Description:
Two copies of one chain form a homodimer.
Chain A: H1 6-13, H2 17-25, H3 32-45, H4 51-58, E1 63-68, H5 76-90, E2 93-98, H6 101-114, E3 119-122, H7 129-136, E4 142-145, E5 155-158, H8 161-174, E6 180-185, H9 190-205, E7 212-215, H10 219-232, E8 237-240, H11 243-255, E9 265-268, E10 283-286, H12 289-309, E11 320-321, E12 325-327
The structure holds a DNA duplex (16 and 16 nucleotides).
Amino acid sequence: MNQVKIYDIAGAAGVSLATVSRVLNHPEKVKESTRTRVLKIIKEKGYKPNANARGLASRRSTTVAIVMPRITRASVAEMIQGIDDSAKKFGYTLRLFIGADTELQRDLWGDVIASSVDGILFMNDEMTPETFKLLQKTPVPVVFVNAISQTAQYTSVLIDDEKCAYDVTKEMINRGNKDILFISTEHKYTVNDMKQKGYEKAMREHSLPLNIIYSSGDVGVNEKDFTEVIDKKVPEVALAVRDSMAISFMNVVIKKGYKVPEDLQVIGFQNTRYAVLSNPKLTCVETPIYDIGNQAMAYLTELMKRNGEHQKAQKEHANIYVPYRMIWRESTR
Amino acid sequence: MNQVKIYDIAGAAGVSLATVSRVLNHPEKVKESTRTRVLKIIKEKGYKPNANARGLASRRSTTVAIVMPRITRASVAEMIQGIDDSAKKFGYTLRLFIGADTELQRDLWGDVIASSVDGILFMNDEMTPETFKLLQKTPVPVVFVNAISQTAQYTSVLIDDEKCAYDVTKEMINRGNKDILFISTEHKYTVNDMKQKGYEKAMREHSLPLNIIYSSGDVGVNEKDFTEVIDKKVPEVALAVRDSMAISFMNVVIKKGYKVPEDLQVIGFQNTRYAVLSNPKLTCVETPIYDIGNQAMAYLTELMKRNGEHQKAQKEHANIYVPYRMIWRESTR
DNA sequence: CTGAAAGCGCTTACAG
DNA sequence: CTGAAAGCGCTTACAG
């Protein structure tokens, strides 16, 4: 293991372990001359305090857990990048826990706790009450990322899905469209429900009939479902909660001989990389997923700091809404 | 923190700490009756050993580091899913370290070591000699994932890119094509170089002229570059190291009024989700990225086990090639 | 401002 | 098969 230990630094600098430790953790408590001397040696020897020892002794690990049901959703990677960039800035390191609700309850949550992270970024939407109980017992701050905590007890960082869907729908209505299809996921996600709510609100305000379809995440299934819909009637506008669904829908329609955006306009709700690879390019609500990750981590840092000072922070709850914007491309006119 | 400690279990079971620890770590050394009794209590109380304490005392953390330059590449998420599924099976937990070569050298690698992981999955292609030195000093096993260690000292888990590109190119030649364009990245990745090598080999064997273009990862730049190429001449076949590039190329060609696959056939080298969202759907070499992650983690587990037994395993090196296969879709005929 | 000492929660030889 | 004890590498009151 021949790693440099704190002893080595103390020895080389002619000070005690305690002083080296202080230089790292409470530099203001150390006389400047010794501080610089110690820091110099730390740098020379490339000393990095053992994370386990530090975690054990201090009960803080400068480590944060990311808990998510799946990592392969299109948006997750970029969110993690946002989280990581922020984590680096604040000196935190990331642990990854991937598992759905059931796994969380069985085993995974124990791992999260056992690893004594300082905070948790939680992306599992739609918790069962059991999971919620688990969360409640957690001794460290939790922030929801692009997922809503239905319990209004934790802060979520996300876009205001309902307002956003409302705005888009309204905009398309104002442009003279009446037959607007809303495409959502079969699997229930709160964020998608919020979007649907926004869509419904706008449609109702104009006394327009709702037209909603739920399909899976699988492109093959999408195409089958969408074909059925189209065979009945091609809507004027399709809004899809996922870019991949928007594009699938568009492709199906085009193959049937219709024109986009002339016969049908399509809008996606994410602005993933897919959006510019489709033909025509997909108009999107841009969900600034990188920013969401970035801000969630920054906010969690706040909470962790407070958590260190007084116990029990985080009872108040206020969601943090990250601004979204429209990116008009070729699939609308 | 009111977490259950090993003391609590020992107390409740009427045994010593040592015995509880043994039940968890060397169950065969404990009499069955006490073992079951202790296990029952562990389960009841939901005891999970503190990972820091365990890591510190045992010098093994059942934790693995994933080191990668960026997480937003299309293939990474699925690879991580593969890694995670395997990690779960073997009882490991994941830490994420995202950073390019320079960051590794400056700081990040120190974090990796300090966190005392039991093994490292390394995805940074194209290391500088400095990074390589860092790797050499690492006390734990390292496995390269979908990236080649140019030094033939570490095992890589990946597909045989050269052979694969050779096979595809040859197949397209055999089908009567002569003008085959190879599209690669501007940024140098060893895996892409290997593909290029395979392409070149096949072309040379048939005395066909090489036609290679390097472009960026940005779709906008791609389109500009590709337009230039096409304005000179549309090739019969385009092979692209990334699906996104293949699709961009295809879109540019289609917009110019050509037909795919009639005038141009296009093949991608990844089979990401993009492939089925394009229109026409993209023919691909399927890089089984999930399997690569999965097997890499499984192999790392082997190495870590050995590393525990005799010191210094891992001098021999043999890459593990995961089989690839062609998925013929609509962009070829 | 600095050092000696206790302790974080485990694991693992070492005895028995 | 089991327990007492040392130790993993740090941090942090507590003295001084």
